[in-house]
Amino acid sequence: MSDHGIPTDNAEVVGDIYAAWAGATPDASAITAASAYGGRRTLTYRELDELSNVVASNLVRHGITRGQRVAFLTSNNAGIEGVLTYAGAHKAAAVALPINGRLTPAEVVPLARHAEISALVVEGAYLEHARAVCEQLATPPVVFAACEQATDGMVDFRRLLDSDGPVTAADLPSVEPSDMADWLFTSGTTAAPKCVMLTHANCVAAAHILSRFPGTRHEDILLTPFPFFTSSGVHTSLFTSATAGAHYVMSVNVEAEPLMREIEEVGATIVGAVPSIFGYMAKSPAAAEVDLSCVRLAFHGGAPVSPHQVAQYQRLFPRAEIMNVFGQTESGNPGTTLPGKHALSKAGSIGRAGMPGVSTRVVDDEGTDIAFPGVGELLLRSKATMAGYFRNEEETARTLRDGWLHTGDLVRVDDEGFMWVHDRKKDIIIRGGHNIASIEVENALSSHPAIHEAAVVSKPHPDLGEDLIAFVVADGEERPTIDELRAHCVPLIADFKIPRDIRYIDSLPRNPTGKVLKRELREHG
Hints:
- The chain is an alpha/beta fold.
- The protein folds into three domains: 13-200, Rossmann fold (3-Layer(aba) Sandwich); 253-424, Rossmann fold; 428-524, ANL, C-terminal domain (GMP Synthetase, Chain A, domain 3).
- Helix content is 28%, strand content 26%.
- It has helices at residues 14-24, 45-61, 79-91, 105-115, 127-136, 200-212, 231-243, 256-266, 275-283, 307-316, 393-399, 438-446, 482-489, 518-524, and strands spanning 29-34, 40-44, 69-73, 95-98, 117-123, 142-146, 155-156, 180-185, 195-199, 221-224, 247-250, 270-273, 297-300, 321-326, 336-338, 359-363, 374-381, 388-389, 400-401, 404-413, 419-424, 428-431, 434-437, 451-461, 465-474, 501-504.
- The strands form six sheets. The chain has an eight-stranded mixed β-sheet with strand order 2-1-11-10-12-13-14-15, with helices on both faces.
- α2 packs across α3 (79-91) and α9 packs across α10.
- The protein starts with 13 loop residues before the first helix and ends with a helix.
């Protein structure tokens, strides 16, 4: 599966990846991350393998059985606990299900209900979320609290680390490549949540592809601030590093200066982030004070970039290849890349070919490959592509056709085959790397008693890539202030989904069938 000739070449399930390096280089650093109990901790590959075995064993003792969902609601401030939960769930033949830590309790409950979770791991900051889940689910999950004092019948997370002796793979349930490994929610809490299902075979394929695209080496130190509840955290970060036996540093820093100083301090050789973070770093006065020549590869994705931005990144990382990457949760995260040699001349392009092991097509509405130059929908195919959406056969059939993943992204292709994301068939706005379903924001605004309806579209943003504009129609003469509308949204949707730009409009433009013409609204923006 891999051409590296490395211990993980023969991995069939996710747990094999950690076990392979535990055998080959047991004392090598596997991960450095913050702990919910304070401080930072580094786990070797031996420790990662052995501790995740113990967690798996204790999950089974607490009643977790094959295929049940083990959700975790942890930030990077509890990175150690998040990783051990993730790896332990896999080894228990359960399904690991990360949940966005920026969601409100009201947003988490329907996700937990839809996925029918059996266990939930939370850090102290999310005890309220756990209580809401337990109160509102017909069958409450067992809750493990990673904090100094577990309450309300919750189990102290440290109980998952208790062991009377070594736990080996032979002591754990058998795991097959066809078993479910990861379930990840895409962008929202709509009436029909989309929960991406990935098997162990999908995840192992993703791990090998993602390790190859940057050419990860055993001696690399990969540092990213990607939240560990995202596919960029669990796949593009952990998998990219662990498959090569490298050292993954999970950063808690998203502010420019501390992040740059951390990169310099640990000697990171590979760094990944959304473009807005690289942009803030490049503009920071501290950029002149740090030496980031240790970085050999800096990759970004999630938002378009300009030649000016790329030039900033090149000055920030003077010895690094600057690479743009494109992927989706549904693809397991593998997708396309723009190599550094084209970073300036084709700035903003997502490349012209898939990562190793990923096939691409660009098709018209009839499914026919387009001629270049032109515009069409990007299709992806690899062994990492999802098995489907949980309990959403209609959307699965629409997205997976004849072995191809229909991304819903329209791309513009030049005469050389380089692709740029042109628009989205799916009404998703990508703000600073966060996917936001406009319908969620529209529903939140429209729930105000003085608002008749709302429409949300994107607008370009120099740092975030995209930002939101909300157009609202008042229900009568009363017009709440913009601050009042924003305050109304606070308990309903995550903070990053709340629009800063809200405008009143007499009526929303519509076509003859009644569909809102969002293209016209974008032109107003």
